[in-house]
Amino acid sequence: MNHFLECIEEFLNYLYIDKKYSENTIQSYERDLMKYYEFLGQPELEQVKKEDIKRYLAYLKEQHLGDKTMSRNISCLRSFYKFLLMERMIQKNPIEFIELPKIRKTLPSVLSEEEVDKLLDVPLTDHYSYRNKAMLELMYATGLRVSELVNLELNDIDFYTDTVRTLGKGSKERIIPLGDYAKEALRIYIEDHRPKMMKRTPNNYVFVNNHGNKMTRQGFFKILKKLAKEKEIKTPFSPHTLRHSFATHLLNHGADLRSIQELLGHSDISTTQIYTHVTNEKVKQEYDDFHPHA
């Protein structure tokens, strides 16, 4: 095997074992590094120069990638070369003094409280609609990531203490309070509807698809987009829009930023601070709309 490929493999193992990165992140990093490797012409590790990295970054810029994708590619290269230096696989870090492209920080898309109410008003007509209602109520009540939501198992829900247990990024456990609306929607779905959705192969995942198998992230987002379209919600949607709305609405109602950080499972408070910018934008918009001298 090419030494470069061996280094990629060792790096990915390090992310999984030592850093406890999620499977999704590791898969993304693997794709990014293989794209980098192919672009450079499958070189040996020692052959890569600073100019090659600059050329690759220019190529990425030409691809008009989204800000998050571009940011991840840069973060991936930084982490990769930092790992190689730490393991003494290279003598110098070729990316260290390269001026990296500045990534514009975009504010997360957030629903108004009225839009959330519209979205959560799911017509309850069959087993699947009760499941959808429970998923949406739970996500808005807890701020779970989509990957955390679909990986929930039945024993993660504690109706006695009204809490949800989840393993977030880096396999960090957190316990999140469960509000009355989400608790009731979950209880009805789990007791009355989930058993009837299970097929031949039983499993312990809370949310299952139409075949009785574990709900996927893609499946959840498909349901979310369909419901948003039916409710004529105009705010741009992403899989984490309800998570962003959860945090922003808590902040709007006076919740402490540190508490929101704990609920979201952010390791760094700076990640949570993006929501203060969202609320500041809202205040500015209301000033512009309603102040007579604005």
Automatic annotation (TrEMBL):
Classification via PROSITE patterns: CB (PS51900), TYR_RECOMBINASE (PS51898)
One GO biological process term: chromosome segregation
GO terms of molecular function: DNA binding; tyrosine-based site-specific recombinase activity
Active site per UniProt: 145, 169, 240, 243, 266, 275
GO CC annotations on file: cytoplasm
All copies of domain Core-binding (CB), residue ranges: 2-85
Pfam families xref list: Phage_int_SAM_1, Phage_integrase
Keywords, ordered alphabetically: Cell cycle, Cell division, Chromosome partition, Cytoplasm, DNA integration, DNA recombination, DNA-binding
InterPro entries with a match to the protein in the record: CB (IPR044068), DNA_brk_join_enz (IPR011010), Integrase-like_cat_sf (IPR013762), Integrase_catalytic (IPR002104), Integrase_recombinase_N (IPR010998), Integrase_SAM-like_N (IPR004107), Recomb_XerC (IPR011931), Recomb_XerD (IPR011932)
Subcellular location per the Swiss-Prot or TrEMBL entry: Cytoplasm
Domain of life assignment: Bacteria
Domain Tyr recombinase: start-end pairs: 106-288
Family: Belongs to the 'phage' integrase family. XerD subfamily. Belongs to the 'phage' integrase family. XerC subfamily.
NCBIfam families in UniProt: PRK00283.1, recomb_XerA_Arch, recomb_XerC, recomb_XerD
Subunit structure and binding partners: Forms a cyclic heterotetrameric complex composed of two molecules of XerC and two molecules of XerD.
Record-linked PANTHER family: PHAGE INTEGRASE-RELATED, TYROSINE RECOMBINASE XERC
Its biological purpose: Site-specific tyrosine recombinase, which acts by catalyzing the cutting and rejoining of the recombining DNA molecules. The XerC-XerD complex is essential to convert dimers of the bacterial chromosome into monomers to permit their segregation at cell division. It also contributes to the segregational stability of plasmids.
Name the record gives this protein: Tyrosine recombinase XerD
